[in-house]
TrEMBL record:
PANTHER family listed in its UniProt record: OXYSTEROL-BINDING PROTEIN HOMOLOG 4-RELATED (PTHR10972:SF184), OXYSTEROL-BINDING PROTEIN-RELATED (PTHR10972)
Gene: kes1_2
Family (UniProt): Belongs to the OSBP family.
Organism: Knufia fluminis
Composition bias type Polar residues, residue spans: 375-392
Protein name: Oxysterol-binding protein 4
């Protein structure tokens, strides 16, 4: 098969640029995200859109809010989390034949939308690029009807050693209210490591490495261990997971176990997953029902919203016109550099629309101190390593330009236009709309009305 020969999956017209790209990766010492990839492997989607993958499985996202039993509720959270992996890390390569390099978001880039799913109600998505050096995306996903909110932030650092290794930094906080309760339950979720396989053949795909931790204020903890296909044995995208209650079980003596392939099928069992363990469910990741994210029509989007900002770049990538792609990308990148210089000269900083630091006195983030205290305790549980064979390395705010939280006060005030200097930030003349709508890798549809702002919070979570 062509994909099994070095460069076999690369179009004939691109093999020269692909070979040069591989050589540049091997000799590059900085962050690989800054390298320009060959046309056939470029994506027209910005990384800021990836936040939507957390909640495309709306039924699974909402399900824990309807389960009264705390152990089963924790299992539903773990089940939802496992199902997000397929969309986050392999849906693009399945759809387009290989993983593509996404566009690097610019500071202040926004991706806004909502899901509307029958009796599940409306779920709002806010995603914002809160830092450029280092690059960090923050997000908040809220369903007020079912009293559940996921928020978090993540950055990526790529390096090369036989393959591309991507270290993810940041975390997610899932806050929900159990049925009939006014006491919130919080889950801290850490991020797996990534590495890009099959690169030399020109058909790259993502494999997960190391582990993901999940721990809750209700006392339930889970650990997911990832193991890809080895030289001799194993299956691609394999994993094992264990869920237990602190003080009553452990990683080796769990209440529930899950194993299989996160991209294909996995099995949930009681106990340690041995031969005598009762099988509860077999889950097919590919058959999970996905909901369509509704976004505003392009002409109604703010200039800083991802689809509109990158529309000309996306159109050029889809056409295979790399000269135009480079020109449009350079216009945005040069405008960003000029604006950063201007801000420095005027002794001011870029104002984030939806997110703040927990110690920011100007916003409402400080009013959520109970949540931050809970987060600190959960983080301490993971870094202590008392019940894990491998512990979390910690928050690492120096790697993400701080800790980022959704700011309820900002969210209530936010409305288009979000920035007075948006056109300056993008190098645009002032009012011209980009040529066409960008293609997206996230399942979306357009709404006929602009998205209402200030509804993305979950009131005091």
């Amino acid at each position: 098969m062509p994909g099994e020969v070095e460069g076999g999956a690369v179009p004939a017209s691109s093999r020269g640029s692909w070979t040069s790209f591989l050589k540049s990766i091997a000799s590059f010492n900085g962050d690989l995200a800054s390298l320009t990839a060959p046309a056939f492997i470029l994506s027209s989607q910005s990384l800021v859109e990836f936040s939507a993958y957390w909640a495309e499985n709306q039924e699974l996202f909402i399900a824990p809010t309807r389960e009264p039993d705390p152990a089963k509720r924790a299992l539903l959270v773990l089940r939802w989390l496992m199902n997000t992996l397929h969309q986050q890390y392999c849906s693009r390569s399945e759809k387009f034949g290989n993983e593509k390099k996404p566009l690097n978001p610019f500071l202040g880039e926004l991706y806004l939308g909502h899901w509307e799913e029958g009796d599940l109600g409306r779920t709002e998505l806010v995603s914002e690029q809160v830092s450029h050096h280092p690059p960090v995306t923050a997000y908040c996903i809220t369903n007020e009807k079912n009293r559940i909110q996921l928020q978090g932030y993540n950055g990526q650092k790529a390096s090369f050693s036989r393959t591309i290794h991507i270290k993810q930094v940041g975390h997610s906080l899932l806050t929900l209210y159990p049925p009939g309760s006014n006491e919130p339950e919080t889950y801290l979720i850490t991020l797996p490591a990534l590495h890009v396989e099959n690169l030399i053949y020109g058909a790259p795909f993502i494999e997960l490495g190391k582990y993901t931790h999940l721990t809750s204020s209700s006392g339930y903890t889970a650990k997911i261990d990832y193991a890809g296909k080895g030289w001799v044995s194993g299956k691609k995208n394999s994993f094992t997971a264990a869920l237990w209650k602190e003080g009553e079980g452990s990683e080796k003596k769990p209440l529930y176990s899950i194993d299989g392939q996160w991209s294909e099928t996995f099995t949930i069992k009681e106990g340690d997953g041995g031969k005598k363990s009762k099988e509860l469910e077999s889950v097919s990741a590919k058959k999970t029902k996905l909901s369509k994210l509704v976004t505003a029509p392009l002409e109604q989007q703010d200039p800083m919203e991802s689809r509109r900002a990158w529309a000309n770049v996306a159109k050029s990538i889809e056409k295979g016109d790399m000269d135009a792609t480079s020109n449009y990308k350079s216009r945005i990148e040069n405008a960003q550099r000029a604006l950063r210089k201007k801000e420095q000269e005027e002794n001011r900083t870029w104002q984030r629309v939806f997110f703040s630091q927990p110690d920011d006195e100007s916003g409402s983030v400080r009013s959520a101190e109970p949540r931050e205290k809970q987060f600190s305790q959960l983080a301490k549980n993971l870094t202590s390593g008392q019940s894990f064979s491998s512990q979390w390395e910690g928050v690492g705010p120096e790697k993400t330009n701080g800790i980022w939280r959704y700011d309820e006060a900002k969210g209530k005030k936010a409305q288009r236009p979000f920035h007075n200097d948006a056109y300056e930030a993008l190098g645009e003349a002032g009012s011209s709309l980009p040529g066409s709508e960008a293609a997206s890798r996230v399942t979306t549809q357009q709404s006929q009305q602009p998205m209402a702002q200030g509804q993305a919070g979950a009131g005091g979570q």
